Amino acid sequence: MVTDTKAGGFAGWLRDFEEQARARAAAGDPEWARGARLEPCVVRSLQRFQVGEDGDGAFLIGKAERAGDAEYAAAVRLFIAEEQNHARMLGRLLDAAGAGTIGAHWSDAIFVRARRAMGLRVELMVLLVAEVIALGFYRALYEGAGDPLAAEVAGRLLADERRHVPFHCRRMRQGLERVPRPLRAAALLAWRAAVAGGALIIVADHGRALRRLGRGRARFVRDVLAEARAAAAEISRPPGRGAWPRRRRPGRRPGR
Ligand SMILES: [Fe+2]
Ligand SMILES: [Fe+2]
């Protein structure tokens, strides 16, 4: 668990991202040569998530640098590197399954446009919607892929996303701490509504893949909303009281 106690407080997160990068380099890649067997509907879903993971993060890095916290900006660079690694691993997994990547998808274009148009705080809120939804999807893939290579990739992505969510929550808590409490509560309510909207788009667009992975639409939405509730609680948590409570193993459901 990463804990940062001082005002800016991202030294611990920076250390965590650096340690993860070292651990990743030491562990090396999954054994791509063993190949993967994936249903066409799951392949299509992975292709869309792969597009979402890809990107250079230049806008986010620029905003983080302008925020004036060098440790946070350095941590954001390493966060972007992890997301790029997700895109690379999903690309390799698709390749191992005999499928290619796709260049673009409308759902990603909407997210990117919404994020770039706003300041750091709103960009993080939009990004956190995608992170919470990705958590739900990679957990479904981890538990339901029925393929060892896909499960290994999903497990690695899931472990990273479980760190990304509290990392963004930490920065959003700082960004919202001077906002009057009723306004902050309204912002978090709007954010949770955006997560619900995003989850509904995913079940409409990826319903067949989710079913194939053993996730009913209702359960997927429930899982994502539980993650969103926990993240909102973390963002509104008063400084110094408790900490992000969970460092779950891949596969454990929220609150269980
Ligand atoms: Fe990711
Ligand atoms: Fe992420």
How many strand elements? 0
Main sheet attributes: strand count, strand direction, barrel closure: none
Secondary-structure element pattern, one letter each: HHHHHHHHH
**What is the 3D form?**
globular
Query: What average pLDDT do the residues reach?
Result: 87
Keywords: Membrane, Transmembrane, Transmembrane helix
Region (Disordered): 235-256
Protein name: Ferritin-like domain-containing protein
Biased composition (Basic residues): 244-256
Which labels suit this protein?
mainly alpha, Ribonucleotide Reductase, subunit A, binds fe (ii) ion, Ferritin-like domain-containing protein, Ferritin-like_SF, RNR-like, membrane
Protein model, in words:
The two termini are 19 Å apart. The chain is globular. It is mostly helical and 256 residues long. The chain is built from 9 helices and no strands. Helix 3 packs antiparallel against helix 4 (70-96). Helix content is 72%, strand content 0%. The protein has a single domain (11-17, 35-236), classed as Ribonucleotide Reductase, subunit A (Orthogonal Bundle), CATH 1.10.620. The structure holds fe (ii) ion (2 copies). One fe (ii) ion binds at residues 83, 131, 161, 164. One fe (ii) ion binds at residues 53, 83, 86, 134, 157, 161.
